[in-house]
Amino acid sequence: MQYRQKAICLCDVLKVDKDVLDSLYDYIENEFEYVEKYPKILTDNPEAREIRPRGENYMSGIFKEVRAFFNWAYKTKIIDSFPFEGFEMPSERYGSPIYITLDDVQKIYTVDLSDFHLLAIQRDIFVFQCNVGCRIGDLLRRKKRDVINGAVEYIPKKTIKENVRTVVVPLNAIAQEIVDRYADLSGDQLLPFESSERYNDNIKIIFEKAGVTYLVIKLDTVTRTEVKVPINEIASSHMVRRTFIGNIYKLVKDPNLVSALTGHVEGSRAFTRYRTIDIDMKKDLVKILEGKQ
């Protein structure tokens, strides 16, 4: 039976061409319409996730993975032709990075959460991440032994295959204060972290309680239009890393220096979006017209 299943899968792979990829693209992009029109799809294949419209950024991520598989299959001669020839890959498009200011971080760190023990812990983790900049996956794995000579040291998991480099981030006074607060935590875990999903939900609540709720402009990746939303509604662990990068980059303007603290490969395109001229820089520029610098 196992060999038969492998044979069927191989046969299906051999049949994939540009037309199949076009059909797959159409289905994934418009799945929400198909399941509404043909309810039997969900009857035969129950889904717990929410099915909604998908933008080109999502589609790009999906088809990069599909293309990587077929690239491997073609190079290893499992297939004789590369089905992506002539297929137009969806392009990724992003707006300016949205992150909070250092004043916002301070408001969040000092908001009174004494009646909300769990939120207070999650707030500490959020502020620690803002001051260290590691990805949430790397933060989850941090142990007490990872703090060496006043700095947290780790190899980022996301880039470990292509960039085996130890990232060393000195702990500033706030980060050290948070580490000391949980020094007596049982076990070897550096901070009392829970699930990523609950963490993201709590971040939004913490923003609201701290009064960090101003409107920001973001790109709707489905409609490719700009929308204004309260910043607390889109706050997440991803914003934490952007906050670390954005505030440091704003001061030093050197992506290679910042990459030494974040684990990015030098020259990474990830920094290109942080080159947006912010309002403070614009104020300095227009002062030139007044003869003030």
Helix content: 40-55%
Distance between the termini: 77 Å
Overall tally of domains: 2
Low-confidence stretches: 1-10
As a percent range, the share of strand residues is 5-15%
Q: Which CATH class of the largest domain is shown?
A: Mainly Alpha
Class based on secondary structure composition and strand pairing: mainly alpha
Tell me, what's the shape? globular
Computed Rg: 23 Å
What's the helix count? Answer: 14
Q: What's the pLDDT, averaged over the residues?
A: 81
Strand order of the largest sheet: 1-2-3
CATH superfamily of the largest domain: Intergrase catalytic core
Total strand count, please?
A: 5
Any idea what the CATH architecture of the largest domain is?
Orthogonal Bundle
Order of helices and strands: HHHHHHHHEEEHHEEHHHH
Query: Main beta sheet, described?
Result: 3 strands, antiparallel
Describe this protein with a few key phrases:
293 residues, hpI Integrase, Chain A, three-stranded antiparallel beta sheet
Description:
- Helix 7 runs antiparallel to helix 9 and helix 7 runs parallel beside helix 12.
- The chain is mainly alpha-helical and 293 residues long.
- It starts with a helix and ends in a 6-residue tail after the last helix.
- It folds into 2 domains: 74 residues, no CATH class; 184 residues, hpI Integrase, Chain A, CATH 1.10.443.
- The chain has a 3-stranded antiparallel sheet. It has a two-stranded antiparallel sheet with strand order 4-5.
- 51% of the residues lie in helices and 8% in strands.
- It has 14 helices and 5 strands.
- Strand 1 and strand 2 form a beta hairpin.
